[in-house]
């Protein structure tokens, strides 16, 4: 578009017209200017930042780099501000004064020529139009540059993330940088010109007043510069402080809520919902108290904006009366109109100061965080040498040390010397952290502090323990950016065992994948196929075979890894499974990050190396634990996932379907009329929630006060009438006194009634709303969490509640204040100006048409913008989870390109919303300008007194302030109420786990005393019409029996535990514990009487005491006794705070075995006769396993113990073994009996292990039987 089209926003009219014609605006092909794309802005800022770092190193300034990148186009925007102020003052001061002087001259013997009046009236219209154009150009261009800064920073953050080995805080910290810190800097760009100009505008206004009335303006000068401006700055600063403190509290609350949702399964196991609901509510109340202070501050600031013109005008009039008599109408109303423009700088100042303070003051928040992030050390990739003297050598490492940057959870690799050769399989055993660190060191993904690493034209492939897949098609996940080679592709599919899976997928390898439609083993095979297809010379494997059962794992290792992948390649495989070690050419034994032994399997056996201390005997079925693993936070995740704070990830990330390689995204429906209808219904419901008294105070009182403010302008014409008709000078004194008293009453009424009413309202209603929400979420069944992303749930506790707390009270207050002001201005003008009322329908029709047209288009763009955010953050989350794979397969450029595409898509929608809003505001301003012009024209055509002329035009000029602000507050109020609607709608549609309004049986406090459990024909389905997972299961467990439950994947072991605790409700049958049907008990009574020790230990934020006894039902002596029983007493005693020692981030100050012992101590304190173990020894080494088994035997000998077991060493020491198959109990007898029956499924499992000594197991079973 040409410059005229851009200046007058003509091209935006065409955009709106085009958007109204299409049903889906995503079909419109429009793009950002090349210079505004994420690539252009990101490249520009990156080059400047790199130069800044090279020049200043650690003293590099991001603010200086931003100024160099965008300052040349940002600083000249001040001209729009100057032009806007000039046109505003020209209309409000000079032209108004000339029109009033013309009216005064008409009453004299020498009137002015009438064409002067028409020229001045037309000039008033032109000034109003150009002032509006300048203002909206300033706002639009400010925001445009803010969006460019945001895009550039987002690109830099993403590119930096691709080069980091470790990000402290994980995905959450990076997302916070993008979603919060970048937005703050963008907001500062929007408000900076308003910030610096506020004081300057006030000084210029006062200078104009001094030019007009001389020394009579001095008191007003003192009042504005000494009282108003400092007061407004102080209020803005205090509000900024309160907002920051509130943000800290909100962050803590959301972090706690995130942690609760992450560990919701554990919380339901122990029936701790009531405790954590109370804890979150208490934090919420603290947060609301801070918000109340901030709200009262904003109300006071808003009041200053309203009373400033009134008091300033009053001071001038009183001073003039005392010094030179009663001022003429053209002077009085010119002053009033001039001081009305004080509202502009005073209104924008608080918002500008709040946004600027967080970014520019001492650079302690946004800029400092970003600078720190950008200066983090990057990965040190191994050096590449073209050729080696021995062509079989792929890589050599000599006396090298490696460390994770800032990550103390991973052991460092010390003094590593290793040679990698072709056709070699190297097995790595040892503690989990050291194995992962070794693989990362070989890949060059962690920092090398000394030694040498040489890579001879080597390429890498990586198969992590947790398979990392992108949300694309199966084919895209395997090709991963390479061109397709059909033969190589077919081989990769065949060797990885995916051929049969193709038959199960509707679209074969073109099926679009998601986490919900693939089993863990399928995901691992896709990861394996990707590695095979890329044909790397060095393949690193991180115990990925643990997700397969024995037969699959052995076949995959032999046919794929040993016979295919290892040909002409080197394989380095970290494993915790003993039966793979004899097939390895070299075995490395790690301890504490150091290779303590190395050699072949026979060599190490001859040295009596105890492999059992590092690896496990055969697990009956490792994959059987996956369901529970997904529900309870892992402590020992994959190499990438161990770097990520999963609790923080769930704050802001909600995965969406997207493809990095194809650019496809799942598109939400563009038609949201149904949702809009729901929103309107809920809005009406929300209004009825408030009490009648609250609603009356909230609406009636601002209306009365606003009408009082509107009526303050009547005193000037009334004063002129008294002076002209009676000649009595006391009239001005009385009326001025009345006016001053009225102003004080106005101020007091606003601050006291409005402030206290709204702060009380927000305290009561916001807390109640949050209480309803958390009650609904914590009482939801586990199936709800399985199908609902945690990010989606958290968005209601974070985003929507923040919008409600931060914007709803303020926007509602201003909406209800400006509405009567706009109405009062129109009514006042219609009363004063003859025949003006006849034109009112035209203004209303034009305004209604403009708002309706623009609002329909704006909603489409808002929906598009909202739908673009999930893919953007999901792509970032996916990238950080798969950093190793992205770098090893050399697809950084492809991921960066897709990231820039998502940023551009988001910013196109965001900019479009801004354009439509600007167009709508401009059109409303043009209608207001016509209103002003018609008002001025009518007072010329139908002569009225100078006093009434001044009254009408000065009030009409205020529409340029009142109407745009009123429209803005209307939309923001609507958006805030929409958040209320969303919260209520979500809360009301969350299913309840427990039937309401039912009389539950209250068990005896000592129940269950014996621990007798009986299942009678239990049938369980996870979905109402789904396949039965448990099929008529019946068994009887005697008091104090020790039972092991075994079975393959999908046999129903985990589901049996879920049914026992009614995590999933049975469809048929009875569960009887100590003679009581558990279906008649409340969930709280049932679950609190059964102790569960999960496979992966979870510790929640709080203290040691709150993690062990949240309801404070145990004495300190009992807690200490439990800790001593699990061998933790001495360690806790050495801590300064002892039982009050803080627990942070899942108890990372304690190692894995200690956290597991804490879980056992927790079970001891429950004092129950039924204890359920979900194989607590799976993730620990042999030494720790023996310690845990000893603690279990010592503390639960008098309890009924149920163990979901996978290690035969544990199983054969139980009283009886329950074997499950396809949801049924097929065997239930003592281990010895089952082992003596060669046809039993248990014997079949035992015979398939191959490397377990049956005689040793039989001896253990015989000892138990004896």
From TrEMBL:
Membrane topology: Multi-pass membrane protein
Gene3D superfamilies according to UniProt: ABC transporter type 1, transmembrane domain, P-loop containing nucleotide triphosphate hydrolases
One Gene Ontology term from the biological process aspect of the record: transmembrane transport
Residues in ABC transporter domain copies: 397-617, 1013-1247
Entries under SMART domains matching the protein: AAA (SM00382)
InterPro entries per the UniProt record, alphabetical: AAA+_ATPase, ABC1_TM_dom, ABC1_TM_sf, ABC_transporter-like_ATP-bd, ABC_transporter_C-like, ABCC_6TM_D1, ABCC_6TM_D2, P-loop_NTPase
A Pfam family that the UniProt record links to this protein: ABC_tran
Signal peptide interval: 1-18
CDD domains given in the database record: ABC_6TM_ABCC_D1, ABC_6TM_ABCC_D2, ABCC_MRP_domain2
UniProt KW keywords: ATP-binding, Membrane, Nucleotide-binding, Signal, Transmembrane, Transmembrane helix, Transport
Stored SUPFAM superfamilies: ABC transporter transmembrane region, P-loop containing nucleoside triphosphate hydrolases
Major localization listed first in the record, in broad terms: membrane
GO cellular component: membrane
Residues in ABC transmembrane type-1 domain copies: 90-352, 752-960
GO molecular function: ABC-type transporter activity; ATP binding; ATP hydrolysis activity
Compartments where located: Membrane
Chain ranges passing through the membrane: 73-96, 116-135, 194-211, 217-236, 299-321, 728-756, 777-798, 818-851, 909-942
Name of the protein in question: ABC transporter domain-containing protein
């Amino acid at each position: 578009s040409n410059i005229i089209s851009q200046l007058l926003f003509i091209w935006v009219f065409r955009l709106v017209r085009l958007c109204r014609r299409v049903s889906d605006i995503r079909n419109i092909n429009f793009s950002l200017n090349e210079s505004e794309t994420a690539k252009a802005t990101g490249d520009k800022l990156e080059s400047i930042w790199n130069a800044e770092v090279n020049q200043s190193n650690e003293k590099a300034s991001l603010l200086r780099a931003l100024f160099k990148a965008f300052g040349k186009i940002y600083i000249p925007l001040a001209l729009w501000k100057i032009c806007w102020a000039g046109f505003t003052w020209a209309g409000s001061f000079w032209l108004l004064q000339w029109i009033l002087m013309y009216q005064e001259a008409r009453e004299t013997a020498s009137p002015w020529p009438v064409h002067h009046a028409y020229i001045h009236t037309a000039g008033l219209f032109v000034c109003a139009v150009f002032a509006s154009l300048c203002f909206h150009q300033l706002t639009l261009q400010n925001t445009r540059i803010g969006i460019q800064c945001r895009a550039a920073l987002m690109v830099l953050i993403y590119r930096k993330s691709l080069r980091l080995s470790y990000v402290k805080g994980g995905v959450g910290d990076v997302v916070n940088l993008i979603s919060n810190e970048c937005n703050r800097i963008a907001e500062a760009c929007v408000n900076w010109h308003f910030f610096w100009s506020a004081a300057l505008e006030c000084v210029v206004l006062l200078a104009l007043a001094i030019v007009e009335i001389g020394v009579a303006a001095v008191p007003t000068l003192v009042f504005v510069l000494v009282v108003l401006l400092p007061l407004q700055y102080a209020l803005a600063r205090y509000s900024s402080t309160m907002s920051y403190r509130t943000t800290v509290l909100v962050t803590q609350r959301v972090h706690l809520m995130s942690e609760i949702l992450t560990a919701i399964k554990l919380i339901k196991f122990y029936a701790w919902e009531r405790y954590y609901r109370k804890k979150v509510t208490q934090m919420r109340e603290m947060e609301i108290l801070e918000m109340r202070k901030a709200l009262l501050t904003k109300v006071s600031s808003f009041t200053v904006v309203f009373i400033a013109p009134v008091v300033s005008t009053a001071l001038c009039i009183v001073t003039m009366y005392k010094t030179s008599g009663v001022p003429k109408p053209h002077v009085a109303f010119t002053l009033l109109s001039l001081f009305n423009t004080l509202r502009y700088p005073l209104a924008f100042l608080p918002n500008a100061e709040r946004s600027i303070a967080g970014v520019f003051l001492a650079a302690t928040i946004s800029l400092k965080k970003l600078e720190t992030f950008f200066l983090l050390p990057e990965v040190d990739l191994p050096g590449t040498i073209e050729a080696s003297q021995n062509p079989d050598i792929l890589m050599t490492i000599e006396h090298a040390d490696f460390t994770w940057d800032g990550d103390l959870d991973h052991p460092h690799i010390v003094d590593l010397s290793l040679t990698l050769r072709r056709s070699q399989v190297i097995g790595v055993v040892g503690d989990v952290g050291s194995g992962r660190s070794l693989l990362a060191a070989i890949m060059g993904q962690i920092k090398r502090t000394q030694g040498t690493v040489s890579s001879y034209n080597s390429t890498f492939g990586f198969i992590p323990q947790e398979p990392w897949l992108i949300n694309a098609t199966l084919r895209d996940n395997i090709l991963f950016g390479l061109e397709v080679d059909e033969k190589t592709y077919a081989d990769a599919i065949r060797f990885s065992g995916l051929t049969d899976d193709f038959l199960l997928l509707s679209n074969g390898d073109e099926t679009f994948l998601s986490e919900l439609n693939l089993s863990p083993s399928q995901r691992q095979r896709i990861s394996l196929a990707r590695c095979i297809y890329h044909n790397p010379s060095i393949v690193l494997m991180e115990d990925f075979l643990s997700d397969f059962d024995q037969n699959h794992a052995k076949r995959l290792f032999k046919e794929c890894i040993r016979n295919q992948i290892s040909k002409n390649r080197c394989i380095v495989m970290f494993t915790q499974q003993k039966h793979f070690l004899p097939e390895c050419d070299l075995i490395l034994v790690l301890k504490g990050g150091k290779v303590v032994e190395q050699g072949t399997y026979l060599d190490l056996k001859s040295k009596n190396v105890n492999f059992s201390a590092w690896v496990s005997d055969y697990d009956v079925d490792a994959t059987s634990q996956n369901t529970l693993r997904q529900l309870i936070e892992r402590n020992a995740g994959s190499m990438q996932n161990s770097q990520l704070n999963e609790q923080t990830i769930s704050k802001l990330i909600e995965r969406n379907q997207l493809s990095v390689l194809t650019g496809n995204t799942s598109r939400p429906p563009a038609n949201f009329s149904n949702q809009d209808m729901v929103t309107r219904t809920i809005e009406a419901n929300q209004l009825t929630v408030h009490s009648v008294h609250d609603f009356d105070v909230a609406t009636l009182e601002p209306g009365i006060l606003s009408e009082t403010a509107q009526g303050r302008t009547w005193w000037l014409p009334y004063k002129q009438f008294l002076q002209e008709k009676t000649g009595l000078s006391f009239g001005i004194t009385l009326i001025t006194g009345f006016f001053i008293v009225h102003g004080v009453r106005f101020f007091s009424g606003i601050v006291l009634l409005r402030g206290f009413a709204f702060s009380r309202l927000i305290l009561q209603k916001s807390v109640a709303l949050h209480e309803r929400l958390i009650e609904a979420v914590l009482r939801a069944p586990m199936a709800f969490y399985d199908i609902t992303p945690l990010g989606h749930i958290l968005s209601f506790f974070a985003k929507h509640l923040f919008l409600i707390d931060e914007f709803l009270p303020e926007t509602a207050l201003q909406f209800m204040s400006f509405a009567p002001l706009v109405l009062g201005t129109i009514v006042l003008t219609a009363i004063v100006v003859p025949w003006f009322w006849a034109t009112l329908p035209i203004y209303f029709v034009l305004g209604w048409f403009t708002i309706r047209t623009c609002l329909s288009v704006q909603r489409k763009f808002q929906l598009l913008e909202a739908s673009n955010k999930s893919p953007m953050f999901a792509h970032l989350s996916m990238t950080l989870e798969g950093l190793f794979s992205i770098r090893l397969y050399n697809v950084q450029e492809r991921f960066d390109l897709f990231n820039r595409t998502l940023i551009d898509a988001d910013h196109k929608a965001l900019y479009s919303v801004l354009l439509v809003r600007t167009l709508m505001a401009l059109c409303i301003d043009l209608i207001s300008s016509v209103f002003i012009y018609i008002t001025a024209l009518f007072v010329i055509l139908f002569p009225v007194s100078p006093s009434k002329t001044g009254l009408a035009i000065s009030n009409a000029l205020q529409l340029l302030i009142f109407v745009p602000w009123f429209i803005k507050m209307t939309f923001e109020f609507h958006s805030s109420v929409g958040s209320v609607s969303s919260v209520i709608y979500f809360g009301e549609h969350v299913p309840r786990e427990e039937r309401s309004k039912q009389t539950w049986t209250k068990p005896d406090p000592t129940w269950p005393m014996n621990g007798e459990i009986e299942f009678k024909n239990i049938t369980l389905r996870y979905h109402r019409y789904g396949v039965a997972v448990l099929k008529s299961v019946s068994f009887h467990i005697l008091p104090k029996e020790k039972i092991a439950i075994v079975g393959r994947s999908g046999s129903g072991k985990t589901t049996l535990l879920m049914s026992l605790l009614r995590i999933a409700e049975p469809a048929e049958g009875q569960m009887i514990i100590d003679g009581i049907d558990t279906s008649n008990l409340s969930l709280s009574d049932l679950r609190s009487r059964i102790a569960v020790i999960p496979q992966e230990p979870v510790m929640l934020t709080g203290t040691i005491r709150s993690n062990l006894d949240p309801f404070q039902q145990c004495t300190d002596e009992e807690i200490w006794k439990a800790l001593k029983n699990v061998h933790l007493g001495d360690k806790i005693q050495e801590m300064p705070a002892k039982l009050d020692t803080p627990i942070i981030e899942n108890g990372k100050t304690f190692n894995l075995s200690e956290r597991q012992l804490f879980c056992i101590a927790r079970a001891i304190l429950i004092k129950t006769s039924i204890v359920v173990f979900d194989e607590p020894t799976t993730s620990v080494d042999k030494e720790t396993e023996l310690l845990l088994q000893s603690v279990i035997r010592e503390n639960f000998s008098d309890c009924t113990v149920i163990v979901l077991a996978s290690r035969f060493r544990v199983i054969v020491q139980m009283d009886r073994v329950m074997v499950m198959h396809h949801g049924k109990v097929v065997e239930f007898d003592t281990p010895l009996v089952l082992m003596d029956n060669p046809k039993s499924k248990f014997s079949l499992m035992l015979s398939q292990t191959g490397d377990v000594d049956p005689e040793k197991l039989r001896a253990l079973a015989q000892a138990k039987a004896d």
